[in-house]
Structure formats: structure tokens, C-alpha cells
Amino acid sequence: MGTLLLDPIAFSIGALKVHWYGLILGAAALLGLLLVIREGKRFGIPQEFFMDMLLLGVPSAIIGARIYYVAFKWEDYKDHFWDVFKIWNGGIAIYGALIGAIICAVIYFRYKGYNFWRIADICAPGLLLGQMIGRWGNFVNQEAYGGPAEESFLRNNLHLPDFIVNQMNVQGTYHHPTFLYESLWSLVGILVLLVLRRQKFLRAGELFISYFIWYSIGRFFVEALRTDSLGFEGPAWLASLINGLWSPMKALGFEQGFLDPNYGNVRVSQMLALIIIIVAIILIIVRRATGRAKEHYNDPIVSSKQTFEQVDVEAGHPSTAVEESAEPTNTTIEVEDKKE
């Protein structure tokens, strides 16, 4: 059976070609934003705040993703510097995107007077939703797939539909649909976060931290299946440790994808995933132990700038409501005096 490839171009407007990848990423950002706006309404945060956040966050994420990727593949770019800016040729990393987006968020939230952890909590499920949908862009482009896999394994063991199995036939060889594995893991994670955020024990910041823990666990196991991983040369014991932690996947019939030895023996994303999980758990413990996580997720969210503005207005210009409320009080006292 021949390879069935989807046309990566959705439609054309004259010489302009609109790619499915761009449409999918756009839909991912929009649906993620809608989920965030809906939750923000519960706390009285205007939707314009989140729309501006998206307009600033998306470019920051793209820049961060590109810098992260180029940094680990500098040998390929140092003699072709202008290729660094050619993101349409591929080469972005999700962890770099998160770093760029977080740096932007810290600055933007502080500018607006909001606590970073409170707003980040609201954004967590939306981030995961965006990642879940965005991975299907890799499917259309037939990229970011895993190592070779038997067609029978994909059809009979995993029971995948024909359109996915056929798209994973790359030049006559079937591959693991790692985009699908990560997308499904994100879907389950969204449900977990939606349930978790309604629990009374959840403190401010812990939903956002839980998002990182969940995503990193899934990324650790999916990353080893891929054939395009960034890598570095680490000590033998570290490579053995990571391979040992991943070994349960072998019992399920999975095999690791090829890692170019020229880049090293440890996959960057796997190493980073382990670090994030450990740091995140420690952060939750430390924030609770030191009292930095006093607020709960469901506590009201107030911008410090709004509070200061209200205080300034009330101090300089007493509101009409306060002036009017004084009259009934005096009247009541006079009535009571007459009764006596």
C-alpha cells in the first residue's frame, strides 16, 4: 500500500498559501484563550486582559522556542546565521516556548498589578488545551513522529484509525504517532486540572505547577520515541538512569527512537522533564511550609493597581454614595430622639 499524505496547504489566495499547520495553531490559541476567559469571568477579570496577554505571549513564545532550539543546535547555525530566523523551515521547541511565554507573563502581570501565580493558575488548562490541539499540526506536516513501528502494532495493538496509520507511513516505513500520544496525554491532563481546580485544598500557584508536572511526565516517556530529539553528551550513569526509568514502556511493546550520537547520549527534553518534576514538587512543599501559598485557588483575585486607584479616588474625592448614606443615618437618630 502506498503512502497517503495529507496536503499541508489548506487553500490558496492568489500567491498566498495558507497551511493547515498555521490554521491548527491559530485554532489552538483561540480555543485555549476562550477556556481561560471563561474561568477568568468567575474572578471578575475582563476578557480584554487575556486577549492582550495572548497578543504579547504568542510572539514571546515563538521567540523563546526558536532561541531554545538554536542554542542546542548552534553547530548547525553558526556558519549560516540568517537561517536562525527562518522558522518556517521548522525548528522550535515547546519548552523554549513556555520559557518565553512565562517571562512575558511575569512582566505583563506585574504591569497590570496581578499576582503571577493567581493568573497562571487560570491559564493552566488553556495552555494544555492549546498544546493538545497544536500537536495535530505535526500530524498534517508528517513531522515529529517516533521511530519505526509495525503496521500491525498500530492497527491491532493500538487500534488506530486508518487515516492516522496511513499518515504515519513515511516513505514506506510506519512510525509511532507521537503527536497523538502527547495529544491524548494532554486531553487527560485537562480533565485532571479541571477537577483539581475545584478542590478546596488547592493553594494559589499549585494548579500551574501541577500542569508542569503532568506535562513533563508525559513528555518524558513520549520524547524517547521520537527521532528528532535534541541531545547532549552526559555521563554514562545519567543515560542509564533515564533509560531505566523509561524501561516500563518496553513492556508495552514500545522501542526508543533513534538519537543521533553526534548530539549526545541524553535527550534534552527527557532530562529537563525530570528536573521540572522534581523542582515542581519541591516548590509546592516549600511554598506551603514557608507560608507563601496562603491564598487558595478559589479566593478572590484583585489587582493591586485597581486597589490603589480606588484608594486614591476615595481619599481625594469622597463618593456620592458615602455622602448620601450619611443623611439617612442622621434622620434615624433624630427620629429616635423624638420618640424618647
Question: Features of this protein?
Answer:
mainly alpha; two-stranded antiparallel ribbon; globular; 340 residues; 6 strands
How does this model look, in words?
By secondary structure, the chain is mostly helical. It has a domain at 303-340. It is 64% helix and 5% strand. It contains 14 helices and six strands. It starts with 8 loop residues before the first strand and ends with a helix. Residues 308-340 have low confidence and may be disordered.
DSSP, total strands = 6
- Helix fraction bin: 55-70%
Which structural category do the helix and sheet elements fall into?
mainly alpha
Output the number of helix runs: 14
The secondary-structure element order is: EEHHHHHHHEEHHEHHEHHH
Q: What is this structure, in a nutshell?
A:
The chain has 340 residues and is mainly α. It has 14 helices and six strands. A hairpin with a 2-residue loop joins strand 3 (169-170) and strand 4.
Question: Can you lay out the helices and strands and say which pair or pack?
Answer:
Blueprint: E1 9-13, E2 16-19, H1 20-41, H2 47-72, H3 74-77, H4 94-112, H5 116-141, H6 151-157, H7 162-167, E3 169-170, E4 173-174, H8 178-196, H9 206-223, E5 231-232, H10 236-246, H11 248-251, E6 266-267, H12 268-289, H13 304-316, H14 320-339
Antiparallel strand pairs: 1-2, 3-4, 5-6
Helix pairs in contact: 1-2, 1-5, 2-4, 5-8, 5-9, 8-9, 9-12
